[in-house]
């Protein structure tokens, strides 16, 4: 497999990886702008733009876009995250030029027809309502808001219904003008691809765009706090977060191993102690998330209102205990899970293309997969225990509680238990 990276004169980066044996390819445009790049009054507009991309251009109607990609057996989709918006397609090798032409069309020539804006506004309002009606989804939005209060990093990616109801065509155009410059675009493709052909087509499609500076988002500042919303639900939902390394921090891989050992699988200590031995919940897990200047380790569980206090205290005890007795077998198991997940995932062209874009946005290059594996292999037990101790003792955390949670301990009580 070979990775090739070129940059057009206007700053647009083109990165590809040929995967021998594949008859298909994944190709997309990653924009290095997402939810955290919005001004307060724009909250949700990056996601709104993602929806509007497929609603028609001067060359293609919304139906044309869907039919042309599906006529060749492919699919096209998009997503919005806190730091990126991605538009991507999966097609057979011979249809890569068509897919790239469609992607360029929806990005460079969207109509933003007023009637389509109204239709999609309704769709997004339904999506927001669905999230608000799903406790184990919305609790993570509330947790994010407590972790990063009063700043873009803490706002809901979908935005609020109030904001979405106000967006106009001019608002969409302004966000595109500010954040969709060629220097903020990464064209990534993996699978049965020809780098030279994609580079030439990219020059034809995007080469005319004028280079312009990319606005910098406001720095993320971890705050911490508690939100408790009592409601008569079947489950009491509990989510706790601690600040963690950003993705350029040397400790990021150690933190991933720690989170995996704590709650990343059925053998993890939280799963074994709280679910298997105590039977206090059905779902419990921990995960590490990393962004350009901050990160989070998040622990989540759902239980009954009668058991929420016991579960929360046990969770704090296990987090604290990891600093002193995390074992070599636990660490090695977590390391193996992360390495296997990485390598198995990269057997997919979609995941390969996404990794290419992510690595270019972070490092300006694509490190070999072996380099990532070596960094995971370099993590020691002392590293993992040290980070567990720092996490438990940092004195700041974010807590979100939803459902029959009146008996859940307060955040201050949990923090005292962690450092006692």
On the 0 to 100 scale, the average pLDDT is 97
Strand content: 15-25%
Question: Biggest β-sheet, characterized?
Answer: 6 strands, mixed
The order of strands across the largest sheet is 1-2-6-3-5-4
Elements, N to C (H/E): EEEHHEEHHHHHEHEEHHEEHHHHHEH
Are there runs of 5+ residues with pLDDT below 50, and where? none
Number of strands: 11
* Content-based structural category: alpha+beta
Helix content percent band: 40-55%
Number of helices in the DSSP assignment: 16
Distance between the termini: 52 Å
Overall geometry comes to: globular
Gyration radius over CA: 23 Å
Topology readout:
Blueprint (H helix, E strand, L loop, with lengths): L1 E6 L5 E6 L5 E8 L13 H8 L9 H10 L3 E6 L4 E8 L3 H13 L5 H19 L2 H13 L13 H4 L4 H11 L5 E7 L3 H12 L18 E6 L5 E9 L7 H12 L5 H9 L6 E7 L4 E9 L4 H18 L2 H18 L3 H15 L5 H9 L3 H13 L4 E6 L7 H9 L1
Parallel strand pairs: 2-6, 7-11
Antiparallel strand pairs: 1-2, 3-5, 3-6, 4-5, 8-10, 8-11, 9-10
Helix pairs in contact: 1-7, 3-8, 9-12, 9-15, 10-11, 11-15, 11-16, 12-14
